[in-house]
Amino acid sequence: MSNPRQQKINKRAIVSLTMLFSFIWLPPSGIILHLTDSAEMSQLRHAAMAVHNFASIIFLIGAIIHIVYNLKPIKQYIVNKVHMFPSLKREAIIAFIITTVLILLFASHAFHVH
Q: Which residues, 6+ apart, have CB-to-CB distance to 56 below 8 Å?
């Protein structure tokens, strides 16, 4: 028989912790992929690619579920912030531009010819 005082499983905590643990796998596997970039498809590179890809998928699914579980508070937060800071739109555009430029600049090394 189950104990009526037994606590229910906290789904939000499971999703958040799953995102955390999958995120922890991303940097080391990405670094290994970067370091083995010039190597042929070795077992290490293949394993790192599998870990990196699957951890990314788990993280993305977790993020979507996290947003679904927290949609109401997220909407309320956005509405409150927009009313508090009418210029938030300008800051969002600036943040988007900074992020995009930095990512594209960092990724541009892949297109340099030796």
A: 22, 26
